[in-house]
Amino acid sequence: MSQSEIDTLIQLLSRLPGFGPRSARRATLHLISRRETLLTPLAAAMQAAADTVKVCEECGNLDVTEPCAICRDAEREATMLCVVEDVSDLWALERSAAFRGRYHVLGGTLSALDGIGPDELNIESLIRRVTEGRVSEVILALNATVDGQTTAHYLSDRLSEFDVQVTKLAHGVPVGGELDYLDDGTLSAALKSRRSIS
Ligand code: ZN
User: How far is the CA of 125 from the centre of ligand 1 (A)?
Assistant: First the structure.
């Protein structure tokens, strides 16, 4: 491994969330010193993921099949649609095993600060699913952040013209809290006691 390849690795790792140049250097040394047990299998796993993981065109989930396993699962309620910001929130809800419907991943939240408007999110595909499908309830499982709540407000407005019940997660989600950080019990409780907002 030449110096430039080491530098490339450090530079790429430093772009990961939670990483800076220092942790990227440490991780690089850690990987190189465990070439057989970590670096090589990790490189293979990353290549396999790059080759096989797709974004589900229906819901925005990540899977190796298209549509994803959740969209293909006939056992899951097609009448309940749970709207989340990111795939990490979908994973959190799946870990809690509290929800047996389908999902819709927005791909972020509205944010005036970051210049993210409705067109940057998967909102038109959500409206299409609500109008074309058998959806009777849309659960807005958005983070209790300012942007998350702004987005929930916008979506409940947009959905109010359709014959669909719009609910949101109840108490238990702390203000500023992100779903991914909630324990499974809290998330289940918030989902069970969700309330109508339209
Ligand atoms: Zn899907």
Answer: 12
| Domain harbouring 119, CATH code | 3.40.1360.10
Distance CA 65, CA 89 (A): 20
Could you report the per-residue pLDDT of 97-143, keeping only the tens digit for each?
989 999 999 999 999 899 999 999 999 999 999 999 789 999 999 98
> Which of 101, 99, 100, 87 lies closest to 188, judged by CA?
99
Rounded to whole angstroms, the Cα distance separating 94 from 100 reads 9
**Ligand 1 mean position to 161 CA, how many Å?**
25
Distance 104 CA to ligand 1 centre (A): 8
Residue 20 covered by a domain: no
Domain limits for position 123: 75-168
Query: Per-residue pLDDT tens for 48-86?
Result: 999 999 999 999 999 999 999 999 999 999 999 999 999
Confidence of residue 92 (pLDDT cuts 50, 70, 90): very high
C-alpha 159 – ligand 1 centre gap (Å): 21
The DSSP secondary-structure symbol of 111 reads B
Question: Burial of 47 by CB count in 10 Å (0-12 exposed, 13-18 middle, 19+ buried)?
Answer: exposed
Answer whether residue 41 is part of any domain: no
Percentage, residues of the chain above pLDDT 70: 95
pTM check: above 0.70: yes
- Centroid of ligand 1 to alpha carbon of 92 (angstroms): 16
Q: Is residue 99 part of a domain?
A: yes
Question: Which residues place a Cβ less than 5 A from the ion ligand 1?
Answer: 56, 58-59, 61, 67-68, 71
